[in-house]
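Document type: protein sequence-to-structure record

Subject area: structural biology

Format: plain text, a pair of labelled lines:
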Amino acid sequence: METIHYEQKGNLAFITLNRSDAMNAFNYDMLAELGQVAEAIRINPDIRVVVFTGAGDKAFSVGADLKERKTLTQDQVKRNIYKIGEVFTTIENLPQPTIAMINGYAFGGGMELALACDFRIATDDTLLGLTETSLAIIPGAGGTQRLPRLIGEAKAMELILTARRLKSSEALDYGLVTRLAAPDDLAQVTGEFADSILANGPIALQQAKFAIKNGMNADMQTGLQIERKAYEITIPTEDRVEALLAFGEKRKPEFKGR
């Protein structure tokens, strides 16, 4: 692939937006390739955590490729909007936990990709924001829906309607990012966080994510039923038996994802 770089290290997958010369802006080819990679990861049992980042050291992604956008017809713009929404929803619905490793500017669609991930770890010297209203459009890849669910309606309304660019420290205060790291430490901090997830049962990780994501969109009683069904899936697994054996033998469990 030309616009996406994919690498797998053990049970950890790395997806890099690979258009550093364009600040990793999304053109249609990148969206198509990102969608292909996400679909392949979704059905890969060997992948237990996924990390998204941007090539270079300036930008995670600055959103839509405005140079491309100027050349598109209205129908092609609608095609791109549909595609980016479809791809980001696929990423949000991945069964594996996902981390956005934000190594630089994250604006517009770049911020919306980060919002589609479960966790966001950013450098302590960058800027982030949903800036679409400054271009006379609105966030169209889930930003108007995911941001208020993450930080609350009033704060999300403020950030979207002002098109404000937040310093990463402010984004941490807003609850927009999970944690910060110095640029030179970003990969290490992200890797350590990923390892803390990978140490646990992979089926349990997926079922816990499923229960949380689906339960948040339901009433409490329905959410509890979702949790119970997700729990029941973990009961007959080999990993659950291994965890009990390891506990009794005072050793670390060796999970197989079965």
Observations:
- The domain at 202-248 is CATH 1.10.12 (Lyase 2-enoyl-coa Hydratase; Chain  A, domain 2).
- The chain has two domains: 4-198, 202-248.
- The mean pLDDT is 94.
